[in-house]
Specification:
The chain is α+β, with helices and mostly antiparallel strands and 267 residues long. It has seven helices and eight strands.
Amino acid sequence: MRVTAVVLAAVCLTACSYKSPNAGHEIVLIEKPIIFGHGGVDPEPVRTGLTITAWTTEGVDVSMQPMKFDAELPDTMTSDGVPITFHAIMVVQVTDSVSLIKNFGPDWYGNNVEEQFKTMVRQAVRKHGMNETAISTIALDSIDAEIRDNLIAFFKDKSLPVKLITMTVGKANPPDAIKHQRIETAAQEQRIQTEKQTKLAEDQRKMAEQSRADADNAYRESMHLSPEQFIQLEAIKMQAKVCGPEGKATCTFIQNGGATPVYNLGK
């Protein structure tokens, strides 16, 4: 009798399986009896602790925490016919694990959402041009809002037991050829601006020199000096500046200018 009891206990233990979900997860039980019963999805998931089930019962682990899904879309056409690479991210959270597995299966995202999500992104991007999509935050906000509204409506229409937490479109990357053209265009525009600034500085210097020349000529005429006399006077000013204050000169100059004196020194 003891041997029989031990054998029966061993058979019972080996005929059972154990389900213990991690924190933030639920396990949906799918019963698959061999002899008795009809099987199917258990209406109550395993939420916490340890549950003993028949060894034929399958358990599907479902994360109840927010989950992130990425969509990388190369060659997404814009309204002006330029293909760009677009990246979009959405974060969703399951609200009913049993309904999700029962009606949509474990691969619910790949079978029901992924392609629809990509199509929504393509349709939203196609309404905007390449430049505004790559640069303008207003265009990105518009794309965000359109995809977000479409996803919420899609989940509701399909009765998917998930809710949208966030939806964000990433940076749009134009083709390398377009990038190189934009860089070259920016370099050319910078050269033009630099040349304009250089010309402006030269024009201002020219005006300053012209003003200085006009002032010097007006002074020369008011002093009744000939051009030669004015040049000689400027040379004297330069010599006085170089050699120090009056009375402390340390330079000796031998002048042989041909300028006519202002006063007739011969008299």
